[in-house]
């Protein structure tokens, strides 16, 4: 079943500091996403990967095109729906995480991870238990669980960030380079967690630079080239090339 239909998505940026020139982020990108699949977005630096995720999350308002979310009761065009609909979908349906943790001052790591679960209605104790399980799976040292992530290393912070993103098992999860700061062993643990904790109900669209990660997690690969869609291929047909000449 199709959960997202992306159709003719374009995003340009007006660069007033550059004498009103325009920079193309995305140019007429179209593809469908199936429920429960894991889609990896790849492409050279500047090819539009982050812009695509931000348009799907409506951090960026596209200039044209549609992003239709096929919900259980109705279809919603994320590119044009009212802001209050976006807020509701972000709370209930769509998660997004960049490679950097949004700092929440003086909130311990375990509560940072538990927070989306509490917002979903879970008890604080249950939410904290799940958070501890996730932090354990990602090898975040136990002595850090009650500490503030502001003092953590980049890799520790990124693990807290990833745990927080996957904790509520959103229907659609957008991940922008969630493992970039992790060493190979921790990255492997993160990949394992993505496939074990997310039970096939969650549709994941993720930007990953590491071809090994793409091959380990993805069902299909979306290749972007200079803002345009180069191809969408099953992962076993993906050769690691970001652009086919
Ligand atoms: N907020 C913005 N303002 C102006 N230009 C932007 C903005 N966001 C993205 N761009 C431009 O859009 C193009 C695509 O950028 P984007 O960040 O989506 O690429 P990317 O594939 O994610 O790159 P990287 O792999 O380096 O993170 C680039 O030319 C970039 O400069």
From TrEMBL:
GO cellular component, one term: plasma membrane
Protein name in UniProt: ABC transporter
Source organism superkingdom: Archaea
Classification via InterPro entries: AAA+_ATPase, ABC_transporter-like_ATP-bd, ABC_transporter-like_CS, ABC_transpr_LolD-like, P-loop_NTPase
Family matches, as Pfam families: ABC_tran
Keywords from the UniProt entry: ATP-binding, Nucleotide-binding
Molecular function (Gene Ontology), one example: ATP binding
Domain ABC transporter: 4-244
Nucleotide-binding is among the record's keywords: yes
């Amino acid at each position: 079943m199709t959960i997202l239909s992306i159709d003719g998505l374009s995003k340009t940026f007006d660069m007033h500091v550059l004498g009103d020139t325009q920079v193309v982020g995305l140019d007429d990108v179209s593809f469908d996403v199936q429920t429960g699949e894991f889609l990896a977005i790849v492409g050279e630096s500047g090819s539009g990967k982050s812009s695509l995720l931000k348009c799907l999350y409506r951090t960026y308002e596209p200039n044209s095109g549609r992003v239709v979310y096929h919900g259980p009761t109705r279809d919603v065009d994320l590119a044009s729906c009212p802001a209050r609909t976006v807020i509701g979908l972000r709370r209930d349906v769509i998660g997004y995480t960049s490679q950097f943790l949004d700092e929440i001052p003086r909130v311990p790591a375990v509560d940072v991870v538990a927070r989306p679960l509490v917002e979903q209605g879970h008890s604080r104790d249950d939410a904290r238990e799940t958070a501890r399980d996730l932090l354990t799976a990602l090898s975040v040292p136990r002595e850090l669980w009650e500490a503030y992530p502001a003092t953590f290393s980049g890799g520790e912070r990124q693990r807290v960030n990833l745990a927080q993103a996957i904790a509520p098992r959103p229907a659609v999860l957008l991940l922008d380079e969630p493992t970039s700061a992790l060493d190979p062993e921790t990255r492997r643990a993160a990949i394992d967690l993505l496939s074990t904790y997310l039970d096939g109900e969650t549709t994941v669209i993720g930007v990953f630079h590491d071809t090994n990660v793409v091959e380990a997690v993805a069902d299909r690969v979306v290749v972007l080239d200079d803002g345009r869609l180069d191809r969408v291929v099953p992962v076993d047909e993906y050769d690691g090339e970001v652009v086919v000449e």
